[in-house]
Amino acid sequence: MKLKRSSRLVDLTRYLLQHPHELISLSFFSERYGSAKSSISEDLLIIKENFEGQGVGWLVTVPGAAGGVRYIPRVSEQEASEVIEELKHLLSSSERVLPGGYLYMTDIIGNPKVINKVGRMFASMFADRTIDVVMTVATKGIPLAYAVASYLNVPVVIVRSNSRVTEGSTMSINYVSGSTKRIQTMALAKRSLASGSNVLILDDFMKAGGTIKGMTDLLQEFEANLAGIGVLVESEDVQERLVDDYISVTRLTAVDTKDKKIQVEAGNYLDRISNGE
User: By residue range, what is the domain housing residue 107?
Assistant: First the structure.
């Protein structure tokens, strides 16, 4: 289709935002808009300057016959700080206190506006790592996993507590719950994860990290690689942490079940940005 430059810029921007981390050739855009590659290059330069200036992301140019341009979502430190402050405010509500020091988080995880912001934060943090799959455990971590996966442009695999007939044969392992010390089982369909895959593990809430440790052990059974660990909320009141290399958005520092008071701080996400990770 032949478009005016203003319309072409709008459609180019929309297309790039909808196809993150995908290498797109200039020939594709040239044929799509019926324009010379030189014109497309000028348009992409305008978009690149605006994306990077506004903190939307990077446009990376790959030279050569097989090259093109790739959009990588990015979240600035200021934007990340604003999202974290929003989450701290939401999580600090006294109505969220549950027995055992847990929090009611279903409304936050089910809010697309909030969870998509967090998804872009994690996608930005892990943008420089090779990630083929996002993994989480059913069920509350699923919305977060899909939010992150949409910005990384990779599929999601879901670990469950038991196998399902509709998923075919599965791989199962037993693991020890970090908080209750109970033996539990998790299963993953054999067809869902290829050998050698680089996997980003995500969880909505982490106490001692038993569930995440179980997922990392499951990766070994599939001969897959751990690319990183992301947590929406971590609990600080833990004697022994079963995982140590993870990125958290918020940290639950205190829960008074009697007076229903909650203290929430920022996790280590901003520290990782400051350290250039």
Answer: 77-274
Q: For residues 68 and 41, give the distance between their C-alpha atoms in angstroms, rounded to a whole number.
A: 10
Mean pLDDT split into 10-residue runs, the chain, 277 residues: 88 97 95 93 96 94 88 96 97 87 88 97 97 95 97 97 80 81 90 96 94 95 97 87 94 88 95 81
Burial class (CB in 10 A: 0-12, 13-18, 19+), 134: buried
Burial of 51 (0-12, 13-18, 19+ CB in 10 A): buried
| CA-based R_g, the chain, Å | 21
Q: What is the pTM of this model?
A: 0.93
Biggest alpha carbon–alpha carbon distance for the chain: 69
Question: What is the number of other CB atoms lying within 10 angstroms of the CB of residue 192?
Answer: 19
**CATH label of the domain that carries residue 27:** 1.10.10.10
Question: For the chain, how many structural domains are there in total?
Answer: 2
Same domain, 100 and 161: yes
37 plus 123 within the same structural domain: no
What's the distance, Cα to Cα, between the start and end of the chain in Å? Answer: 42
Residue 133 near residue 145, CB atoms below 8 Å? no
Same domain as 123, residue 18 = no
